What we know:
The protein has helices at residues 47-64, 111-119, 128-137, 151-159, 169-173, 187-192, 224-232, 281-297, 306-310, 336-360, and strands spanning 2-8, 12-19, 23-31, 35-36, 44-45, 68-75, 81-83, 93-94, 147-149, 166-167, 178-179, 184-185, 202-203, 208-210, 218-219, 222-223, 240-244, 248-254, 264-267, 274-279. By secondary structure, the chain is an alpha+beta fold. It has a five-stranded mixed beta sheet with strand order 3-2-1-6-16. Strands 17-18-20-19 form a four-stranded antiparallel beta sheet, with helices on both faces.
Amino acid sequence: MKALGLDLGTTSLSAVVLETDSGVLAAKTVQNAAFLPGERWERTQNAEEIYAAALPLVQELVCEHPEICAIGVTGQMHGIVYLDTDGRCLSPLYTWQDERAALPFNETESWAAHLSAVTGYPAAPGYGLATHYYNVHHGLVPETAACFCTIADFVAMRLAGRTSPLLDGSNAASLGLFDLQNGCFDKDAAEKAGLSPHLLPQVSKNAYLGTGAFKIPVYAAIGDNQAAFLGAVDDRKHTLLVNVGTGSQVAVSRPAIFRFPVWRPDPTPAAGIFLWVRRFAAAEAMLCWKISSARRSGSQADRISAFTARWNARWMKPAKSPTHRKPLRSFRAHGKIRRFAEAFGASAAKISRLCTSCTAS
C-alpha cells in the first residue's frame, strides 16, 4: 500500500510517498515563499500561493506513483484563513507567528490574555481564536466569511474537492476555546467573548474528506506535532519526542487529560489519546523580538505582556546593538543551543516523572 503525505510548513512545503513495507519511496520539498509584508507584529502568508506551490508536489508524486491510495495532510498549526461558502480564501493566512493578539487590550492585558480571562480557556498570541478576537474588534473579518480554518485544512479541503473544511480535533484544539472532554469548540465561551459561533469550523471524528480531482481518498489534516509523533515514535507509551523546527517542542503521549503546569494537551487522531506538548523556540524567539523592539523604539516595552516577559525572560540577553527585525538575530547566539538543550532535557525528565506518578496513582 502506498500513501502520500503532504506537510505544509511555515518555511517549506514537503511531500513524501510511503509504502507500507518499504518505507519512504520518494520525497520532494520546496520553499514556502508566501509571506506577505506587514507591520512588525504581523506574520501573514498568501494561502492561495501555498496551495499553488503544494499542488505540483502532489501532482508529480501521483504521476510517479499511480498506485497511491491515500493522501494525508499536516502542517503549521494555530493560524487561520477566512473562507466563504464556496471555500474560497477571503483573507491572508494569519500564521501562528502573528502577534496582533499580543498587542495591548488595556493597560494590563493583551488581547489574548483578555480572551483567556473572559472565557477561562488558555489563549496565546498566534492562536486562531485570539487572532480572530482581535480581528473582530478591528473590523478585519470579511463580511462574507462563512468560517475559518488552518492552512492544512484549507489545502486538504481543496484536494478533496470540498467547499467547506472539516477539522480533526488536533487542528481544532490548536485554535483555542476547544473543549477537550467533548471534542468540540465551546460555543458558549465564544459567545461570552462576543464571538459569533457560526464562524467556528466543523469538527468531525470521521477522517475521510473525499477524493477530488486525483480520485484518491483525502483524509482530514492533523496537527504537525501529532504527525511528527505518530510518524517517529514506535513505543508511544514510553517515548518522549524532541522536535526541532521553526518552533520546537518536547512531546509525550498519555491516555488521559492530566494537568501539567506549562504543558499543553493536544488531542491526537487516536480517540482518548492526548499529546502533551511543551513549546520552546517559537515563544523564546518572539520574546527576543519584543524585547529588541522595545530597546529600539522605547514604545514597545509596554506591549510586552507580563506573563510573557516572566516566562524564561532570564534566557534573553540582548546584544549591545539590536538592530535587526528578525527575532533571534538581535541576540548573541553563544550559549543558546546549550541552554535550549538543557531546557529540553529538564522538561523531558520532569514530564517523565509526572507521567509515572499520575499513572501510578
